[in-house]
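Explain this fold:

***
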Amino acid sequence: MKEYLLELCKEGKDRKIIIVDAAGIFASIPLQITAPCITSPRVINEIKDKESMRNLKIALENKRLIIIEPPHDIVKIIESHSRKMGEHYSLSQTDKEVIALAQYAKLSGCNPLVYTDDYAIQNILRSLGINYVPIKTRGISKERKYIIICRACGWIAPKGFKHDTCPICGTKLSKKITSF
């Protein structure tokens, strides 16, 4: 299916590719717009309610939504970038795959637009120069960078720290906004 995306991107830089997360499917975005819509397999697994499942089935049957597994190397790049931004604790694997699809589309020459209400996804997309459209929220107004900190003892995690608990006191780590 990655070949499908590459074919779409060959049609020119003005070709807009829509990428949707679960919020985009809940809002039936693939049934409302004419541009090609893509999503990752993990997003599909998040759809549970009957109406969204019905709309999803219609979108898939009519090829209004295409499921594409993002390239593993792009997902790894997104994971690394999200650590640098301090967003890795806020992003699920599904979120990272949605961002990876957008980055892959961008690197392939497409003009991607992501429909999402997730602020962490929006923050990463903004930092990558990828456009997004909030659906039911206002969306973020500016890019933010976070540090990972232990609220109990004040320990600050070094960049790239991969654990979610403080090595000093064992408390769950949280993110705190920082200036660039």
In short: Residues 88 and 149 are 13 Å apart (CA to CA). The mean pLDDT is 88. Helices lie at 2-10, 22-26, 29-32, 41-45, 50-61, 72-85, 93-107, 119-128. The chain has eight helices and seven strands.
